[in-house]
């Protein structure tokens, strides 16, 4: 049981690292009109509704912290946003079914939208930059759409990893019964 | 049911705990730079090596792609380049002439503070901002290589940005197109100073805005070069920012503003040069903010 737990933590950490490195090395090349998808948000939200609030929060916190360290103006800002995203998505764990892709898509879209609004609010509006509709059309909505498109490819992969881990956990659990 | 309740309680505690931690870190890190220290070390052993590796793979793949460009392309390019050589030879003669004149004038004015003389060190860009909102990136040199905060960063011939944060083997650079970037600059032809500020709204068009230039008799035309000014306390004097692409007189009739096309292509920055002298060192100031 304990070994499984260590394995899960290890793989989750690996997923976050890979997602982060892809986000800041490969994705800037794939950008369309200067907009790149938000892979870390997909990972955070997915772990939220697949594994529950606790996992979502920890994954979000770590991803956000990585962004804070390298790109943030202060440590804790992105960590807090991703933390909340993970927690809120975790609340939908009860409604989540593996076969249904509509709910994940919807949740990730809403998460990304709210993420954009939050960033605008705290870093631009409070800086007295009131061109909300501009940012909405230029960044928030395009980023959301692009993120959804990427989700279609990334989410099945995350689901697959989760399945594999859950199946293994069940097997090792039944051994002890 | 009881178990589920317990779960959601612990979740709430975790949420509360981590949130308080985040807020605390935000407050602390806005007062002191030292807070980030341990986190930087964490980044140093986890993501930085990976990013450097990815960067090398990317560079290798870029080379491969270049190798596949066809003969035909090369031939037509060759022809075009030959024509260009002819044109440039003529231009070169003309410029040589001008150079002698320039040298003479330079001697007269003792304008030898060219930025070619600053000591520079090259670095690779290893990561770009994870979001879409800001224009910051990381380079693969840090305090171990002598990089310090406030060092100016160039690419090719133009100004890219300024180092805002340094880790052991990496540094964070805020580019001049970033929304929070403001630079004191001047037109090279008239020495009129202005403020060059990055703008999120302009980032897509590849331009930056300038404002607060005095509306006097000096003519600043499209194509005039804008360089960093002597006033700035962080940017070294005379680094090329770009050329004026549009200039308008403001409605108050006192100032002029407009747009600048940067000398650097911000879409494709791979290598940058960091000037290892800061303005504070140069002027002998040791300001502690």
Draw up the topology in text.
The complex is a heterodimer of chains A (177) and B (289).
Chain A: H1 2-25, H2 39-51, H3 53-71, H4 77-90, H5 102-124, H6 132-176
Helix pairs in contact in A: 1-3, 2-3, 2-4, 2-5, 2-6, 3-4, 4-5, 5-6
Chain B: H1 2-31, H2 37-45, H3 47-67, H4 71-109, E1 120-128, E2 136-139, E3 152-155, E4 158-166, E5 171-175, E6 182-187, E7 193-197, H5 200-203, E8 208-214, E9 225-228, E10 240-249, E11 255-262, E12 271-275, H6 279-283
Antiparallel strand pairs in B: 1-2, 1-12, 2-5, 3-4, 3-12, 4-5, 6-7, 6-9, 7-8, 8-11, 9-10, 10-11
What's a concise summary of this model?
The complex is a heterodimer of chains A (177) and B (289). Chain A is an all-alpha fold and 177 residues long.
Structure description:
- The complex is a heterodimer of chains A (177) and B (289).
- Chain A has helices at residues 2-25, 39-51, 53-71, 77-90, 102-124, 132-176.
- Chain A is an all-alpha fold.
- Chain A has a single domain, classed as Arp2/3 complex 21 kDa subunit ARPC3 (Orthogonal Bundle).
- In chain A, helix 1 (2-25) packs parallel to helix 3.
- The longest helix of chain A is centred in the C-terminal third of the chain and has 45 residues, at 132-176.
- By secondary structure, chain B is an alpha+beta fold.
- Chain B contains 6 helices and 12 strands.
- Chain B has helices at residues 2-31, 37-45, 47-67, 71-109, 200-203, 279-283, and strands spanning 120-128, 136-139, 152-155, 158-166, 171-175, 182-187, 193-197, 208-214, 225-228, 240-249, 255-262, 271-275.
- In chain B, the strands form 2 sheets. A 6-stranded antiparallel beta barrel of chain B has the order 1-2-5-4-3-12. In chain B, strands 6-7-8-11-10-9 form a 6-stranded antiparallel barrel.
- At the A-B interface, helix 1, helix 3, helix 4, helix 5 and helix 6 of A face helix 1, helix 2, helix 3, strand 1 and helix 5 of B.
């Amino acid at each position: 049981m304990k070994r499984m737990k260590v394995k899960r933590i290890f793989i989750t950490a690996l997923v976050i690292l890979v997602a982060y490195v892809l986000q800041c090395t490969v994705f800037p090349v794939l950008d369309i009109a200067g907009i790149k998808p938000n892979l870390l948000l997909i990972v955070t939200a997915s772990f939220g509704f697949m594994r529950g609030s606790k996992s979502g929060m920890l994954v979000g916190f770590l991803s956000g912290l990585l962004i804070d360290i390298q790109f943030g103006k202060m440590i804790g800002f992105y960590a807090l946003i991703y933390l909340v995203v993970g927690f809120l998505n975790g609340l939908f764990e009860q409604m989540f079914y593996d076969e249904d892709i509509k709910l994940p898509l919807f949740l990730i879209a809403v998460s990304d939208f709210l993420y954009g609004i939050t960033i605008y609010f705290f870093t631009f509006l409070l800086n007295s930059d009131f061109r909300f509709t501009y940012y909405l059309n230029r960044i928030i909505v395009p980023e959301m759409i692009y993120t959804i498109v990427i989700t279609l490819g990334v989410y099945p992969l995350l689901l697959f990893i989760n399945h594999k881990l859950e199946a293994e956990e069940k097997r090792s659990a039944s051994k002890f019964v | 049911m009881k178990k589920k309740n317990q779960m959601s309680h612990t979740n709430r505690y975790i949420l509360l705990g981590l949130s308080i931690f985040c807020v605390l870190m935000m407050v602390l890190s806005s007062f002191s730079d030292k807070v980030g220290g341990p986190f930087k070390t964490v980044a140093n052993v986890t993501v930085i090596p990976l990013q450097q590796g990815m960067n090398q793979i990317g560079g290798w793949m870029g080379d491969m792609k270049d190798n596949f460009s066809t003969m035909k392309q090369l031939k037509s390019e060759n022809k075009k380049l030959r024509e260009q050589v002819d044109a440039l030879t003529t231009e070169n003669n003309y410029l040589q002439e001008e150079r002698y004149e320039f040298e003479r004038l330079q001697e007269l004015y003792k304008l030898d503070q060219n930025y070619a003389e600053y000591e520079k060190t090259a670095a690779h860009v290893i990561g770009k901002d994870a979001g879409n909102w800001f224009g910051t990136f990381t380079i693969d040199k840090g305090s171990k290589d002598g990089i310090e905060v406030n060092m100016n960063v160039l690419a090719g011939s133009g100004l890219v940005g300024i180092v805002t944060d340094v880790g052991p083997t990496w540094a964070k650079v805020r580019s001049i197109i970033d929304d929070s970037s403001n630079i004191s600059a001047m037109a090279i032809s008239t020495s009129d100073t202005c403020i060059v500020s990055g703008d999120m709204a302009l980032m897509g068009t590849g331009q930056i805005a300038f404002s607060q230039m005095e509306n006097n008799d000096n003519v600043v035309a499209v194509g005039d070069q804008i360089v960093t000014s002597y006033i700035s306390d962080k940017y070294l004097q005379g680094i090329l920012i770009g050329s004026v692409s549009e200039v308008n007189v403001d409605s108050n009739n006192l100032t002029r503003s407009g747009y600048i096309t940067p000398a650097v292509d911000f879409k494709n920055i791979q290598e940058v040069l960091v000037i290892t002298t800061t303005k504070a060192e140069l002027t002998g100031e040791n300001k502690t903010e």
